[in-house]
Amino acid sequence: MSSKHQSPRQSLNASPLPEPKPTKSIVASKVPTNADANVIIKDLRHNYLGVEQVTRLYDKDGKVNSNVRIDFTSIKLANAALSKGYVLIDGKQCPVRTYQPPFCHRCHTEGHYASNCSQKPLTEQRLRDLFQQQQQ
């Protein structure tokens, strides 16, 4: 069997992670950090249909970085902006990509990372405790 062709079983098990869901949000990068959020949203609403909200993104230390999240009213409008590969902000082309929300690998839900998860980590002691609770 050549490497180009996979058996049905191999193709089913090829990717353990689910496909990313379509999103109404995109991320624009290389946006000047000193640009005012009101100017950014006004500029985007002037140039693109369906811009709902613009949110500045921050790094792990809480500092403003050069990325902004742009929420659209529909997936179709977000995809239209993505198809160009950039958005115009203050006359400059800012590259865009799809927005991927934070994903917790502990509880397998979106919206936060494992470091901020409210579920307790599964240690050996906790596993024994859970097993004992099930036996009772």
TrEMBL record:
Keywords of this entry: Metal-binding, Zinc, Zinc-finger
Keyword ATP-binding: no
Keyword Iron annotated: no
Location of region: Disordered: 1-30
Superkingdom to which the source organism belongs: Eukaryota
Single GO MF annotation: nucleic acid binding
Domain CCHC-type: 104-119
Bias-annotated ranges (Polar residues): 1-14
Secretion signal, residue range per the UniProt entry: none
Entry-linked SUPFAM superfamilies: Retrovirus zinc finger-like domains, RNA-binding domain, RBD
UniProt name for this protein: CCHC-type domain-containing protein
